[in-house]
Design brief:
Blueprint: H1 2-27, E1 51-58, H2 63-74, E2 79-83, E3 88-93, H3 99-108, E4 112-119
Antiparallel strand pairs: 1-3, 1-4, 2-3
């Protein structure tokens, strides 16, 4: 009886692992899909910004991940340049951005925040 339960548990684990893998194959690592990024948002003028932040991000592994992060900040009026190779994003803003805003935006997309640095502009 215990052997049957173990076999069913292993089969279920295998099923969910294969399903997750197939989702990543068809929709990309971040779920952004295989097509082009559809949303084009207007970037704020960086020359008017007074604040600059460098954010180290965990889990950003492709260009679509970087584009998702950039668009999430652009929707809030914050210019963002994300680089999946370096695993970081540079944020530019006319007003100060709270750590909470930065963290909640990134964590809300499924990534982790490893470090936030405020830089001189």
């Amino acid at each position: 009886m215990i052997t049957a339960i173990i076999i069913v548990a292993l089969a279920a684990a295998c099923f969910f692992a294969v399903r997750s893998y197939m989702k990543k194959v068809s929709h990309g690592c971040c779920g952004a899909g295989g097509g082009e990024i559809e949303e084009e948002l207007k970037k704020p003028d960086i020359s008017e910004c007074k604040y600059k932040y460098t954010v180290k991000i965990g889990g950003m592994s492709c260009k679509k991940c970087a584009a998702r992060i950039e668009n999430a900040f652009l929707r809030q009026g914050i210019a963002a340049e994300a680089d999946n190779v370096r695993g970081e994003a540079i944020l530019y803003s006319k007003e100060q951005i709270s750590d909470f805003t930065i963290r909640s935006t990134i964590i809300g997309l499924g990534y982790t925040v490893e470090r936030i640095e405020e830089n001189e502009l």
